[in-house]
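In response to reviewer comment 3 from the previous cycle, which asked for concrete evidence that the modeling workflow produces usable outputs, we include below a single protein chain processed end to end. The sequence was submitted unchanged, and the resulting structure tokens are shown without manual editing.
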Amino acid sequence: MSMKYDERMAICEACPLLKEDPTWGPVCNSALFLNVQTNETSRLSHDGWIRGCGCHLKIKCRQPNAKCIAGKWD
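The workflow returned the following structure tokens.
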């Protein structure tokens, strides 16, 4: 694995949007909204909060031009 992949996965693994899917492994939970300032999550939308992207993180973290929707990595 590349260092960039490992760094991205470590960030995702510490993120409250992380969901372990039995088929796909780690996924960015699109059922939750995140307050990027506080790391608080909610199932309800709030102004300024972002929704998890739903991406399969083992795939997304390998893509050179991928970006975290929450701005945690690029």
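Helices lie at 3-13, 57-60. We consider this sufficient to address the reviewer's concern, and the full set will be provided in the supplementary archive.
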